[in-house]
Write a sequence for this structure.
C-alpha cells in the first residue's frame, strides 16, 4: 500500500499500462515536452523519459486532430490515451467524438472498434467560463460512449486501467481540485484527497457505483468534487440526527442504477449533487429513473443541487455562489424532513 | 487524354484491371440509380458518375494491408478497392447481408477486413482519422500506407487542416487524395477558395502538392504511385488533387440548375470511361471485343448482385440494439 494523490495514481496507471501493453500510447498538448510540466496538471510528468516521445506524443493545439488521430489509431489496433488539456476543449472535437468515435462501431455493424480514452479535467477554478465547465452530461447523451468520473486515488488508477483495456471510447473526467498537482501546477482551494493504492495489480470495473458512507435517512448521489461536499454535508447532518447514505457513481455511462435504487428503497429520499448547470444534467436522468422505478418507496420529492443555469464566472465570490456548496447540500437535505 | 504515360509502364493486365474497376463502378451506379427510381432502394444516393478514373487509378496503387478512407460518395471507391458488389447492393437495399448489415447505408459502405474503412460521411471528418491510421502503422513498424479521399469542399473544414498538418509534422505514411469536382454540393469552387487549386495549400504544411487530370486514369495512377511510394518509404504525406467532374447531381434530389448545359457538355466530352476505351483500343492494347467481354462479366455480376440483395432478409428488428458497444 502506498498513499498517493490522484495525479500520482493516474500516472502510475498510465505507466503500468504502457509497460504491459505496447499498443498503449499517449497524445496531447504539452504532455511530454522536455522541461515541460507533464500536461496541464502534471499527470504525464516523467513518462516521456521512460517511454520516449514516440509513445508520449506532443501535439499541436489541434483538438480535432488529437481526437481524430486517436480514433484512427484505435481502429488500426492501438490503444491511445489522449490528454485533453481542459474538458472545455472537448467541444473543439465534438464531431470526432459524437459523429465518429461513438458511431463507427454501430454504423459498421460491429466491424470497427474504437478503444480509446479521452482524459479531461473538469471543474470551476477561477479561470472564467472557458476553462471551468463540467461537461460530463453532454457525453452521457451519446450512445456508444462510456463516461467515467473517479473521485479517489484508488478509483482513478483502477478505472483508468479499466478504461484503457475497454474496447470502446471512454470519456474519463478528472477534477482539477482533486488531482493534488504540486509545485507551479498546484491549485488554490484544492481538496486533493490522498488515498491508499495497493501495490499489487487491480482494476475497478467500469459501471459500478460505490457507497462512500452508509446511512438510513436520505441518499445523496455525488461525483468528483461534489462527492466531498456531500460527505461534508453528511457530517453536518449527522449532528442533527440525519444519517445520509452517500453514493459515488464513479461511472456515469453505464450508470449503476441498481445501487441507487437499492439505497433509495431503504432511505425514501434522494438528493443528487452536480457541479454542472442544473438543466438536463445527468442528475435529471437519475431523478427520472428513480421517479419511475422507486416511486412507491419515496417519502419526499427528489431534489437536485447543481450550478445555476449561467456560465461559470471568474470572480471567486461569484464562483462560490456558482459551485454547489456543502451548505446548499445540507439545506436541501433538511428541506426533505418535517414537512413531508 | 494525355498520352504521355511512361511512369510506371503498366502491363496489359493492369490496364484491363483499371478498365474493369471503372466500368464496374459506372454500371453499378447507373444500375442503383435505376433501382432507386423504381423505389427498390430507399434513402438518397450520392453518385460518382464521371469520377471513376480517380477511384480506379488511385486504388490500383495500393496493396493488401493498406487502409482506405472514403466519403459520403463511396461507391466507386469501394468497388475499385474490391468491396463486394453483392454486399454493397444488399446494403443499399437495407438488407442484413449488406456491408453494414443494414446499419450503414450508401454513405457508410465499407469492408474493413479488406482495408476499406466503412465510409465516413462527415465532410473532412475522415482526414484526422486517416492520420491516426497512418500513425498506427508507423508505431507498429509496418510499411502500410493510408489513402484518404475527400472532395474540394472538405478542404475548408477545420478538421482537414488539423489532420493534414499533424500528418505533415509527423511525416505519416498517408496520401490525401482530393477529388475536386468543382462543386461542394452546389457551391462553385471559386466561391469557396481564393486560390486556384486545393493542392496549393500543401505548401502551408510543407508537403508536396500535386495537381493531376482526375479524368485521366493513367495520370492518376502515375501520380498516386509516386505519392504511395513516398509515403511507404517514410517521407511523409502528399496532397494529390485530381481535377474531375460529377456527370450526375450531388444527390438524388439535385436538378443541377447551378451548372450550365454548356459546362456539362464540355465535361461529358471528357468522360473518363469512353476516353479510356478509345485509348485502349486505338493504342492496340485491346480489341473492342475484349472490352465487351469485360462488360458482359460486369452485367452478370450486377444481375447476380441484385438477385442476391433482393433475396436477402431484412435485418432482425432486435438487431437495432446490437453493436452500440464492443
Amino acid at each position: 500500500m502506498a498513499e498517493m494523490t490522484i495525479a500520482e495514481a493516474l500516472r502510475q496507471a498510465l505507466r503500468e499500462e504502457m509497460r504491459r501493453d505496447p499498443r498503449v500510447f499517449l497524445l496531447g498538448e504539452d504532455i511530454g515536452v522536455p522541461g515541460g510540466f507533464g500536461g496541464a496538471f502534471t499527470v504525464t510528468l516523467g513518462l516521456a523519459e521512460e517511454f520516449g516521445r514516440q509513445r508520449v506524443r506532443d501535439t499541436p493545439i489541434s483538438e480535432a486532430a488529437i481526437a481524430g488521430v486517436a480514433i484512427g489509431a484505435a481502429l488500426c489496433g492501438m490503444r491511445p490515451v489522449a490528454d485533453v488539456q481542459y474538458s472545455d476543449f472537448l467541444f473543439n472535437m465534438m464531431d470526432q467524438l459524437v459523429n465518429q468515435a461513438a458511431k463507427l462501431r454501430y454504423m459498421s455493424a460491429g466491424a470497427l472498434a474504437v478503444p480509446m480514452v479521452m482524459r479531461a479535467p473538469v471543474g470551476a477554478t477561477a479561470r472564467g467560463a472557458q476553462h471551468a465547465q463540467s461537461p460530463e452530461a453532454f457525453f452521457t447523451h451519446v450512445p456508444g460512449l462510456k463516461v467515467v468520473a473517479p473521485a479517489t486515488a484508488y478509483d482513478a488508477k483502477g478505472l483508468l486501467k479499466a478504461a484503457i483495456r475497454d474496447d470502446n471510447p471512454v470519456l474519463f473526467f478528472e477534477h482539477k481540485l482533486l488531482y493534488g498537482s504540486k509545485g507551479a501546477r498546484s491549485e488554490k482551494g484544492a481538496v486533493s484527497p490522498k488515498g491508499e493504492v495497493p501495490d499489487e495489480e487491480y482494476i475497478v470495473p467500469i459501471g459500478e457505483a460505490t457507497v462512500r458512507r452508509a446511512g438510513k435517512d436520505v441518499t445523496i448521489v455525488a461525483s468528483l468534487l461534489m462527492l466531498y461536499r456531500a460527505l461534508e454535508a453528511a457530517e453536518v447532518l449527522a449532528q442533527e440526527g440525519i444519517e445520509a447514505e452517500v453514493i459515488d457513481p464513479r461511472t456515469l455511462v453505464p450508470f449503476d442504477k441498481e445501487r441507487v435504487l437499492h439505497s433509495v428503497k431503504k432511505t425514501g429520499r434522494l438528493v443528487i449533487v452536480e457541479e454542472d448547470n442544473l438543466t438536463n444534467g445527468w442528475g435529471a436522468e437519475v431523478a427520472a429513473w428513480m421517479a419511475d422505478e422507486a416511486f412507491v418507496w419515496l417519502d419526499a420529492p427528489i431534489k437536485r443541487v447543481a450550478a445555476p443555469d449561467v456560465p461559470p464566472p471568474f470572480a471567486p465570490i461569484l464562483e462560490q455562489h456558482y459551485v454547489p456548496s456543502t451548505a446548499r447540500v445540507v439545506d436541501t437535505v433538511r428541506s426533505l424532513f418535517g414537512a413531508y | 487524354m494525355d498520352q504521355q504515360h511512361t511512369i510506371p509502364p503498366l502491363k496489359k493486365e493492369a490496364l484491363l484491371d483499371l478498365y474493369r474497376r471503372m466500368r464496374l463502378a459506372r454500371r453499378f451506379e447507373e444500375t442503383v440509380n435505376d433501382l432507386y427510381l423504381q423505389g427498390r432502394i430507399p434513402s438518397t444516393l450520392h453518385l460518382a458518375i464521371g469520377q471513376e478514373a480517380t477511384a480506379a487509378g488511385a486504388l490500383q496503387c495500393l496493396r493488401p494491408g493498406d487502409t482506405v478512407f472514403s466519403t459520403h460518395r463511396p461507391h466507386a471507391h469501394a468497388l475499385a478497392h474490391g468491396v463486394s458488389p453483392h454486399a454493397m447492393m444488399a446494403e443499399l437495399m437495407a438488407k442484413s447481408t449488406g456491408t453494414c448489415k443494414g446499419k450503414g447505408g450508401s454513405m457508410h459502405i465499407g469492408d474493413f477486413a479488406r482495408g476499406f474503412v466503412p465510409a465516413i460521411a462527415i465532410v473532412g471528418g475522415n482526414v484526422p482519422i486517416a492520420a491516426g491510421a497512418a500513425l498506427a502503422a508507423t508505431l507498429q513498424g509496418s510499411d502500410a500506407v493510408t489513402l484518404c479521399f475527400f472532395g474540394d469542399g472538405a478542404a475548408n473544414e477545420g478538421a482537414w487542416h488539423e489532420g493534414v498538418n499533424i500528418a505533415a509534422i509527423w511525416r505519416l505514411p498517408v496520401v490525401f487524395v482530393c477529388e475536386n469536382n468543382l462543386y461542394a454540393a452546389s457551391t462553385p469552387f471559386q466561391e469557396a477558395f481564393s486560390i486556384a487549386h486545393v493542392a496549393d495549400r500543401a505548401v502551408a504544411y510543407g508537403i508536396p502538392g500535386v495537381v493531376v487530370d482526375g479524368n485521366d486514369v493513367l495520370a492518376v495512377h502515375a501520380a498516386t504511385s509516386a505519392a504511395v511510394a513516398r509515403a511507404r518509404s517514410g517521407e511523409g504525406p502528399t496532397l494529390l488533387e485530381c481535377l474531375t467532374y460529377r456527370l450526375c447531381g450531388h444527390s438524388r434530389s439535385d436538378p443541377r440548375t447551378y451548372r450550365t448545359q454548356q459546362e456539362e457538355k464540355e465535361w461529358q466530352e471528357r468522360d473518363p470511361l469512353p476516353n479510356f476505351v478509345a485509348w485502349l483500343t486505338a493504342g492496340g492494347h485491346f480489341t473492342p471485343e475484349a472490352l465487351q467481354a469485360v462488360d458482359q462479366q460486369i452485367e452478370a455480376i450486377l444481375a447476380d448482385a441484385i438477385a442476391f440483395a433482393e433475396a436477402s432478409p431484412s435485418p432482425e428488428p432486435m438487431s437495432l440494439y446490437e453493436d452500440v458497444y464492443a
Notes: Chain A has a mean pLDDT of 96.
